[in-house]
Each structure stands twice: as C-alpha cells, then as structure tokens.
Amino acid sequence: MKFSHNFQTVSARQSSARRLAAALAWSSAAAALAAAVATPAHAQVAGASLRGTVKAEGGVSEVTAVNVNTGLTRTSTVGAKGGYSFASLPVGTYRLELTTPQGKRQTDEFNLNVAQSAVLDFDFSQPDIAEGGDDAIIVTGSRIRSMEGGEVGTTISQRLIDQLPQNNRNFLAFADLAPGVQFITNASGQSRLQGGAQGSNSVNIFIDGVGQKDYVLKNGITGQDSTQGNPFPQLAIGEYRVIGSNYKAEYDQVSSVAITAVTKSGTNEFHGEGFIDFTNQSLRDRTPSENFPTYIPKIKTRDIQFGGALGGPIIKDMLHFFVTYEGKRRTEPRTITPGLNLPVSFFPTEYQSNFGTASETFNENLYFGKLNFTPTSSDLFELSGKYRDETGVQINNGIGAYDTRTLAKVAEWRGLARWEHTADTWVNDFKVAYEDVTWGPRPAVFGNVTLFNATVPGALPGTTQRGDILRIGAGRNFQDKGQKGWQVSNDFTYTGLEGHTFKVGVKAKWVKLNTNEQGGVNPLFIYNALYPAGGAFNDTIPYRMEFSAPVTDGDPNIRSKNFQFGIYAQDDWEVTDRLTVNVGLRWDYERTPAFLNYEHDPAIAAFVSGQAAYTAPNGTVTPAYTNLLNADYDINDYISTGSERKAFKGAWQPRIGFTYELDDEGRFAIFGGYGRSYDRTQFDFIQQELRQGLFANRVFNFNNPGDATNVCDPSATCIAWNPVYLTPEGRADLIAGLPPGAGRELRFIKNDLKTPYSDQFSLGVRGRFNLLEAEVGYSYVTSKDGFVYLLGNRRPDGSFFPPTGSPDSPFGSPPAPFGSIILGDNGLKTKAHTAYLKLTKRYTQASPWSLDATYTYTDAKENRQFGEVFSLDFPNMDDYGYITATGVRKHRLVMAGTVDIPWGLTLSGKFQIASPKYLGAIVNTVGTGGTPPSRDAISTKTEGNGDRWGYRQMDLSITKYVPIGFINDEARLRFRLDIINLFNDRNFGGFDALTGLRNQNDLALDGPPRTIKLSAGFQF
C-alpha cells in the first residue's frame, strides 16, 4: 500500500541509452560525489530537511524538490557558494530537478524520513558527468547522508512497522531498538515506554509535531495509564524516530524518551487496505497456572483486531485525504496468587477459591482522518483528527480476587490544523491543536473491601517481611481524570545565511486539568491475618479502616486552568567542512492556579505546627500537635497561605551537539552532546493536597490489644473496634461525632516545589559502509527533583524511629483527630551510565533484507524503588541512598530483521534477551538489648529464568502476498502467520525481594506464552 510515505527504495526510471550512460558515469565518479560536510538543515519534529552543495561550470541557479506521490514542489535558490537548503519537507519519496549549463538533470527517487537531517551534494565539473544530455538521471543510490548530531536514537521505518511480528498492533512496540529504550508489556497486557532509569511519566510522543503529553497521569502520554489499548491506529503511522537522549531545543515536556512520528497522507492515486488478526486459546500454549497446581482446561482467550484505511486525491496535486479505523476485542487470562510466597493452604478453605485464573476483557476503537491541501507551491495546509474509545473489565495478576475488578473507560479527541508557508530563505510552520481526554476507571462491584496482610520471617536471619497477601470484596477506586484545551504554536526557520540554519519557536497552551478521585468509594478493612499470635486465621478484627467521605459539603471534583508557554532558539552551524555544531536554548513557563493559590486551613496549620490548639466546629478542643517542634524539617515550608508559591519559570535548557567527520567521504564521524530538559510534575500528585478539604480519605486505626502491627495511642482516630463500622450507618455515626474531616490525612506540598529535569551527555562513533551502518556510543543521564510523598508524622520527641524495638515508621503518632501528615516534595533521583552497540542494514530491492540490532549495557542507580512515589519508610530522601535501579536490566539485546524469500514470501523476526532484573526491599532489624533498631533500603538481583536469562522472547512472522489482478496493478491479498514467543520461554515475573529467588506460587508471566496469530488482508 502506498500513501505519501513510500519508504522503499525506488529504482531510477531510465528510458534511453544516453540516460543510462550518464547514470553509470555518475555512479562511478566517487570523487565527484565526495560529500562536503555541510551542516544539514535542522529537521522539523514532524518532517525532514535536505541540504547540500551543487558545483557546476557556469553555476546552478535553483534546485527543485518534487514529492513524486503528491506532486508537492519546493524550490531553493542556490547560494553564492553553491549551497541549497530545504528547511522543512513532508516525509515521503522525492526527486530533485536541476538546470545546469550542461543540460537538465534530475535525481532518481529517494526517501526522506521523519526528523531526518539529510545531505546530498552534486559536482558537475567532471567531464564524464558534463557529457550527459538533457533530462539525464542522476543515480543518488546511497549518496544521501543523514546527520543525527549528538542524538542517541533510531528510526523505525514503515517496512519494520508492517513486517515485524507483534502481538498488540502498538506502533511503539519497536521503540526498544533504540539504545536505552524499553517497551514493556506487563503480565496484564498493559504497555508503556521507559528510557533509562526514569519513569514512564518522563516520556513524550510527538505526532505530526504535536506532543501527546499527559499532564495528569503517569505513563507519559494521554490514555496510556493502566490500559491494554494503543495510543494511535498503527495504520495511520508512516514512520517514527526514537530519541533516547540529547534531542534538540524544539522538544519540550520530556526528560527521557522523545518519540516523533508522522502520520500517513493521501496521494494522487487511490490506495487502501483492510486486515483482520485472530487468535484464541486453541492457538496458544498452556499457561503455568493452567498446569499447576492442578491441570485444568484452558481459560478462554480471544484476540480479534481488525481495521482498514483509504487514501487518495480529491483534487490531483492539490487536495488529498486519508482515513483509517482500527478495532480490538480481547479476552485474556489473569492469575490470582497469594502474597509473600505463601502457599494457598495457608488460607482457610472459604478463601482458597479466590486463587487461580480469571478472564479480563478489553474493547478499543481508534479513528483517524486527515486532509492535505497545497493550493500553491509555497503553502501546505493540513487538517487531522483522532478519536479513541476504550471499555472493558480489568483485573491484574496478583493478590486481588476477581470481585475486585475494575471497569475501564478511556475517551480521547484530538485535532490539528497546520499551515506551512515556504519562501526562498525561510519556512513558517503555524499549528493550532485541540485535545479532550478522559480516563475513568471505576469498580465493577460496590461493597466492603477486605485486605489481609501478615508479617512472616524474612529470608535473612533476624529479619521479617510484611506484606499484603489477599484482597477480596470489591474494587477500591473511582476515578474520572483528564485534560481539555487548546495549543497554538509557531516555528520559523531561516536559511538565508550559508552555513547556518536558524530556527526559533514559540508555543502557548491553555488546558483545563480535572480529577475526581474517590479512592475509598468502597471502604477498606485491613486485617492482620496472624492476630492474635498463635490463633486462627483472623478475619473478624481489622486493625485499620479507610474510606472516603465529603468534608462538610465538599465536591470531589478538582479542576484547574493550566497555562504553559515555551520558547526556543536553535542554530545548526557548519563550522568547517567537517565539523557541525548544533546549539540550542529553551525556556519554559507553567502556571497552575489551583496549586499556586491554594490556602491551608489556618487553624489546622497552627495546630500541626504546634502553635495553637485545634478547636473543631463542634467545640471539641485538641491540644497543639507539638511533635514537629523538634522535627528534622520545618512544617512551615509546606504550609501555604496563597502567596508563597511561584509559577514554574526561568527553566533555561541548553542543548548542544556536534558531529565531526573523520574522512572526506563522511563514512566515519564522532558525535556527542549535552542537554538539559525539564519535564512536568503530574497534576495527579498535586491534586491530593487540593482535595483534602473537599472529599477526603479517612483513616481510623483500631487499638487491638497485643497486636504489634499497628500500635497507637487512644485518640479520635485510634479507637476500639466495633462491627458496626462495617455498615455505612456505623461509619456515618462515627464521623458525625468527630470534628469535620477527622481521620483524614493532611497533605502539604513544599511551597518552592521544583520541576523534574534531566541532564544528558553522549559521545560516540558512527560508521557507514554502503547499506550497513554501525554506531558505538556512551551516554550518561542523571535525573533530579522527581516528585515524592514523605511521611510527616513524628514521635512526641520529634524523632522518626523509636530508640528500641522495631524500626517502624511513626504512623501511630498522627495529629489526631486527623490522620497522618503526608509531605509532597522533590527528591527522586536516578543516574544511568549506558554503553551500546547498534548495527543497521537497510533494505533495498537490490538487497532485499534488513537488520536492526542493538546491544545495551546499563549501570543505573536510583534512590527509590522504580515507580514508587510514596516514600514512607525513612524521614527524608537522603536516608534512602542509591540502590541498583529496579526498573532497568543491565544487559539487553534486541534484534529485528526482515528478508524477502522465494515464492513471494517475506520472513521477519524479533528477538529479545535481557539479564535478570533487580528488586528493591526494606530490611528491618529489631533492636535488642543495647542494639538500636535499623532499617535499610536494598536491591537484590533475581535468579532469572531458564538458563539465567531474565527475559527472552523470539517472535517470528511469515507473510505471503497474492496479486489479484483488478482495481489497480498493486492490488493483492495478504496472508500472514505470526508466532509470538516461538520457543515458549517462561518469563516468570514473581521473585522474592530479599533473596532474589523465584516465588514458586506466582505463576504469572511477563509476556505471553507461545501464541499463534492468523492474519488476512488486502491492499490496492
């Protein structure tokens, strides 16, 4: 199928012996084509740039670029030194047309890729070239070069997207071919991107130049929090580039991985396609839980994915359209297992039926449409829109029984209007974008939630481990979160000064953020299963109760208008014939009034700071909470009166890169760079402070005699257990007799909260050997100021840990009648040293195979276990120290290849292998005699799977195309067989955090068992 992005090499069309002779002469004139090391024009986020020099006796006045599929033309005047430049060209297939004193010339067809900075030079001074007559075709072959500067990344072509095997039609599934980038699909089928040791919330994806950043939730881009869905229809993606570090100044709101993708467009010919993919339980291997502990029939599995696309002309060479739809219907097995490696027999008979397998369902509909209008040779207008709709039933592998399942809901609208105007020495790109995103999971069952936990001996002598072991009853959370608003941006590129490409840009965004989080819409009762010690399994006396309720007439909906503004300047400078320097500077501003103007209740502020007693509206007086007077922090740094907080501004971000070519042909080059990049603090973190006075989570502890799990002093929030609290009426009576908001946590976010950022360094060598490209490099990325929640409670003397006994956090010393003090602050840090080797062999029709292989070694550290925001084990982040990062595997090899084989078949495969992961844990040592208690954060290498690999998967596909001989010459049927996890590797994910040994009771897999997927489709 060809739209405007036909990325396969097109052989030159030659109609005469004279053209052939000229072409051969050109091809043999290596010296004439020795590429001057010209600085490439800076690539647009959503397009490409092309630059070069033309040498000819008598001179060449202009060069014209022609998109062979859409008819779009752009003309560049050749400068006094022979330089020409196209600062922004839509991704696609082009030829260049030149008029020289020796006659007309045109190149054969070549491709420009997304975010590519390409160089193509010509020298007509050679006698054999000069003899070519009018319309002689210049064979460019592999002469076109790409200049990545200091970027560390890779480009995923349309061929790879179309041909490589995959299970989920998520176009991002191949991003892990870039060094330091992981595409992770968990045991529940939910996928995310990750760069280095940073979290997924630091990622941003730019589609047609517009960021898809999620300002509320955690996985970087909108709609990707806790979903099996795809962010965009794969049929609509032309190709994309993955940049792991050292992107240029135009990239914003990202501190790890930046993805820039371009969508397909219609062409001057009608083309379309349709497909259906299918698999079910009969086409997959048995899961471990279907074999153990008893052999059971396979749990129902079904995966149907289907869709189609159509594109073509409305007015030839002027107006084109493209539309696509993709649907997904999935049923997947899930495994419920006990926590803490406990056997099922640990539980009474009535609870054992909660363990085993269950089914999860998921439905998704994705729509995309686009219009391209080129009324003149200087103007391009684009109008596009996307709609995404998801529903289903979610249940994760782990301790949650089936009745705790969640109903999924995602709805996303996005629109983009773009006008690009091109003049002789400048390009202006103006965009207006709109977004409306809703993410709203909610419980499938309403009622009480029961959570059992236990404390059992640890794997190390003298230690214990405590954790949750089973959750039953109902789902816990009701959420309705999202963002809606407009973006206006303008990028201006100037190429009038030879040797320089200047680019400046500005972006303003007005977006409304909203959250409605009722985390305790179903009340939670937590039981110590081993209370009292030596007794029967305890399911009658909980030690804690948590539920949500309004504070007076509070509204659970939190909304805030958010304003963002960013500017940047970038210069790509040809310092010498071999040295290119990319220098950029970015500045961002952000204002969130709901956070900046928030005012803590003055009476509560004075109470927790120990300045005054708290008098509740009902007249109850509680003495001042004096525990913080001798604490290791000042609570006043976190108390806001509405004037202390400042908007995020002044974030200067230098971005510097270089490329130095070592030889005249430009085959070998040294590259490197440094850059600072700021991200965003999720609104989901901030809103937890904002909603505490509206709809709050209440926490009550029960002072059970002899239960060391939860020791607390009798107070309004530390009470005796009464079974009446299991009823709504009992809980209502409890809080009615207490001060409003009693039992609720108090959230305080630091007034001078900083924005997370990363510093990125890279250095490496690239080599090009015709169709083979090799790269060896090193990068270092350190991230700082990640958001974290700390426990603000202190014991009466101001200490965090007790002098003797167990080193427990001071949950038993809250500022009653309220719950615990939770402090929002900066403090999460990571650092990752990465060495990598990347090999790429490009596909051509003459050499019909491709290979992309990347080996990465990463030595990463973090000061909090990956993905953990709540850090309640130590008084501050300095006490955690660095541990080996738990979200990164030290060794990773990813290989992908395609090859055309006889009988019209295409064979492709992807292989991944990685070393075992690390897990983080907190180790407590009980103080005895004169020995004080201690608590340490550690990381442990897991034992891995199979023959010591941590993760391994080989996927294979074979595709057969059958011409059908009508509609057009390209009409054909497509039949495809995918085998996912060909060798049926068991990638178990459950390991003990202290010993690293595999949890034999945790049978969930990180990835699918061997699965066969059948596909059929057509193209024309």
Quick description:
The chain has 1020 residues and is mostly beta strands.
Quaternary state of this entry equals single chain
Tally of helical runs: 9
Main sheet makeup: 22 strands, antiparallel, barrel
Shape: globular
Beta fraction of the residues? Answer: over 45%
Helix content: under 10%
- Low-confidence blocks of residues: 4-43
Radius of gyration (CA) equals 31 Å
Let me know the number of strands. 54
Structure write-up:
The protein has 1020 residues and is mainly beta. Helix content is 6%, strand content 47%. It is built from 9 helices and 54 strands. It has a 22-stranded antiparallel β-barrel. It has an 8-stranded mixed sheet with strand order 40-39-32-31-27-28-50-51, with no helix packed on it. A hairpin with a 3-residue loop joins strand 48 and strand 49. It is globular. About 4% of the residues have low confidence.
Topology:
Blueprint (H helix, E strand, L loop, with lengths): L16 H12 L19 E8 L6 E6 L5 E5 L5 E7 L2 E9 L2 E5 L2 E3 L4 E3 L2 E2 L3 H4 L5 E3 L6 E2 L5 E5 L1 H6 L17 E5 L5 E5 L8 E4 L2 E2 L25 E9 L12 E6 L7 E10 L7 H4 L10 E14 L3 E18 L12 H4 L3 E21 L2 E16 L11 E17 L3 E14 L2 E2 L5 E9 L5 E10 L5 E17 L5 E19 L5 E5 L15 E7 L6 E18 L4 E13 L1 H4 L5 H7 L5 E2 L5 E2 L30 E9 L6 E11 L4 H8 L4 E8 L15 E2 L8 H9 L9 E4 L7 E13 L2 E20 L29 E21 L7 E14 L7 E2 L11 E2 L6 E11 L3 E10 L3 E8 L8 E8 L9 E13 L8 E9 L30 E9 L1
Parallel strand pairs: 1-8, 1-9, 6-10, 15-18, 27-31, 39-40, 41-44, 43-46
Antiparallel strand pairs: 1-4, 2-3, 2-5, 5-6, 5-7, 8-11, 12-17, 13-14, 15-16, 17-18, 19-20, 19-54, 20-21, 21-22, 22-23, 23-24, 24-25, 24-26, 25-29, 27-28, 28-50, 29-30, 30-33, 31-32, 32-39, 33-34, 34-37, 35-36, 37-38, 38-42, 42-43, 43-44, 44-45, 45-47, 45-48, 48-49, 49-52, 50-51, 52-53, 53-54
